[in-house]
Amino acid sequence: MKILHFFVPLLLLASISGCSPPGDRIPVVGILEWERLELIAESNEPVARIEIQEGEQVNAGQVLLRQDATRAQSDLDAALAVQDQAQAKMDEFLAGPRPEELAEARAARESASVTLRLAKAEYTRVKKLHQKELASTEALDKAESGELSAQASLALNQARLDKLLHGTRAEQIAQARAAVAGAIARVRHAKINLQRLAITAPQDGRIDSLPFIVGEHPPQGSVVAVLLVGETPYARVYVPEQMRAGIRPGSLVEVRIDGIESVYAGRVRTISRDPSFTPYYSLTANDRSRLVYLAKVDLLDADAETLSAGAPLELSFVPETGNGQDQ
């Protein structure tokens, strides 16, 4: 295609040497093109299945090919598990303690309270005996330690009960909500990665090329399908410098395609403001007469939808007076 684009302006220059005055019809040559959409692979997973064939007409949203989804599905399953875990933790915080947990905490506090009373009584008894020199200092110290330990145990169990009664802290609930939000975002990301393994048509069109076959690993970012879109093709032509000033978007033309007798009506879509290959400011006045400008011409006839890209063509029109509009 690049070679063809290179030679078309050369052929045009040869054809217009010694051309007629601007008012006469001047043939302009070019080739027939379709708008092309290149669909790329966002993963290097192997091609698992091709749903269509080259040349087939497809609709927007239709699946063209599928890449292997084993790894992406595993990532999604893992993300869903993390989301369930985070949601369960937040539900636990919001629900608060169960009645059984409260009953257990109250029973532990009551047991610690009874233990403390016994420890106090024991310390009092041993202290009296020690004053009468009927108990050793070691026994007194042991009884005192028992009382202190019982006091600490009661305080610990009371704190545990208070914690259950007061419920979960607001900061913990906020952290749990943030964890759930993060898990949901990871699930959404995993779903997107999984969906992108199914290459779909962004709009109606015809399949022009499928570079890979089942089992191949397309590099990430490589083209895996080429879609030709639009109702009709367009003519890619090169307008001589003498005609540039009289051509503007909207100008009507007649298009003749090699090998086809029919003459197609066309309308100029765009015409370049810059000449092909050589900037005008580097040329002399004589050289400027050999400049060409790239233009795109839409074919207006409905039956043009059956034409194939790459066909050589020639179009003609009468240049209009006045300055054209650049695009």
- As residue ranges, the low-confidence spans are 1-23, 321-327
Which fold name fills CATH's third level, the topology of the largest domain? Elongation Factor Tu (Ef-tu), domain 3
Do you know the CATH architecture of the largest domain?
Answer: Beta Barrel
In percent terms, what proportion of residues is strand?
15-25%
- Following the backbone from N to C, one meets helices and strands in this order, namely HEEEEHHHHEEEHEEEE
Overview of the structural elements:
There is one protein chain. The protein has helices spanning 2-16, 70-95, 99-131, 137-166, 170-195, 241-244; strands spanning 28-40, 47-50, 57-58, 63-67, 198-200, 205-209, 223-240, 252-257, 263-271, 292-299, 312-316. By secondary structure, it is α+β, with helices and mostly antiparallel strands. It is rod-shaped and about 135 Å long. The chain has 6 helices and 11 strands. β8 (252-257) and β9 (263-271) form a beta hairpin. α3 (99-131) packs antiparallel against α4 (137-166). A 6-stranded antiparallel beta barrel has the order 1-7-10-9-8-11. The relative contact order is 0.20. The protein folds into 2 domains: 2-68 and 204-316, Efflux pump adaptor protein, beta barrel domain (Elongation Factor Tu (Ef-tu), domain 3), CATH 2.40.30.170; 73-190.
